[in-house]
Amino acid sequence: MKKIALHWQILIALVLSIPMGIYFGSDGIFDLTGVFDFFGNLFLNALKMIVVPLIVAAIITGVSNIGSEKGFARMGGKTILYYLTTSFIAILTGLILVNIFKPGIVDGIPAKDLLALTPLTSDQLSSISGKDSNEIYKIFLRMVPPNIFKAASDGQMLGLITFSLLFGYFIRRLTVKNKEIQLGFWNGVYDIMLDITNLVMKIAPLGVLGLVSKTVSETGFDSLVPLLHFAAIVLFALFIHLFISTSLILYGVGKVKPLVYFKIMSKALLTAFSTSSSSATLPETIDGVTRAGVPKKVSSFVLPLGATINMDGTALYECVAAMFIAQAYGIDISFGMQLSIVIIALLTSIGVAGIPSASLVAIVIILKAIGLPEEAIGLILVVDRPLDMCRTAVNVWSDSCGAAVVAATEGEQLLCN
């Protein structure tokens, strides 16, 4: 019998969670809220477990695998500049829209009751309220932690990310023998963490079933209103980034007609949409940009790197999700905290694995950084899968645009000019 694909399993779990929450909640035929709680927390704990090793290994391998030859160094600089620029634009797009439309506020009231959020403790509230304009310089202090292991255990990922970036960079400057040892080790760790992440995602259907069923049992269908508003904001922001921001860069810098290029890349974008994996889509992405005239020396470098560190749609989603949850709790996010979210979303998007729903790991990091409970991530699981499909397509589109832009700046003549 053919195995049901993971995305279908999650969608089935999502559909089943509605009647399960109604008929087997606290007011249903049988009270299974304890069971829902168990599987929901099991999934959340598994996500938290993989955060540190996955992010560290992904960033170190992504940075250290950049070629060190002069041509590759120049190309690498252009590639990273493009990826950082487009990710930053994506995050700002999401941040502006979530501040304008405020999906976490319903009829002028925070949606915490509609979403059955557990009230914040006084310690949590004081911790969050203490993050004011002074948070701006504190961000830079946290980027250099005095104890890297304590930072990891405390969930202070900003310093860990900075350390990983430096570690990956200086691996490239080792002697050939030591460099090979380090690259072999960290590439192995990264491959292991991808396998473990895939294993964790196999219990995602149970996690979704547990978390959503519990929410439905406590709130009924009222919780769908802010969630659908949140999903609409994410989709609108992704639309702007795909059809306006990156397309303007593609046309302005790469001198490529966006509609023609979009048609060439349509197969890769459909693959990305259906698989929710930029890594799995990589062969189709390479094929598409090759047909557009991007030479192999560019595509073989830019695209694998992009599948690892360039996650425009993911970075945008992380930012909007964190702001939505804060709004739902009724927390007024200061400028300093929003800047912190932008920086962390930008850096964590580098370390998010190119596999389905891996961005949930990064959202846990952001929630921890701004003082919100990680369990609140359960809110967005209802709409995470379809949004994951959309943001992965945006990730792949940005990667392909990056290949075209870098090729154009290297003097290559593309077929779709």
Task: Explain briefly what this protein structure is.
This protein is mostly helical. It is 74% helix and 1% strand.
Q: Please, could you describe this protein's structure?
A:
Helices cover 74% and strands 1% of the residues. By secondary structure, the protein is an all-alpha fold. It has a single domain (6-409), classed as Proton glutamate symport protein, CATH 1.10.3860. Strands 1-2 form a two-stranded antiparallel ribbon. Helix 2 (33-64) packs parallel to helix 7 (157-171) and helix 15 packs across helix 17 (359-370). The mean pLDDT is 80.
Note poorly predicted spans: none
The strands making up the biggest β-sheet line up spatially as 1-2
CATH architecture descriptor text = Orthogonal Bundle
Q: Report the sheet-strand fraction.
A: under 5%
Please count the beta strands (DSSP E, at least 2 residues each). 2
> Number of domains in the coordinates?
1
Structural class: mainly alpha
DSSP helix fraction: over 70%
Would you give the CATH topology?
Proton glutamate symport protein
CATH first level: Mainly Alpha
Largest sheet: 2 strands, antiparallel
Q: Secondary structure elements and their pairing?
A:
Blueprint: H1 6-23, H2 33-64, H3 70-101, E1 105-106, E2 109-110, H4 122-129, H5 135-142, H6 148-153, H7 157-171, H8 176-202, H9 204-219, H10 224-252, H11 258-264, H12 266-275, H13 282-291, H14 296-309, H15 312-329, H16 335-350, H17 359-370, H18 381-409
Antiparallel strand pairs: 1-2
Helix pairs in contact: 1-9, 2-7, 2-8, 2-9, 2-17, 3-10, 3-14, 3-15, 3-16, 3-18, 10-15, 10-18, 12-13, 12-18, 13-14, 13-18, 14-18, 15-16, 15-17, 15-18, 16-17
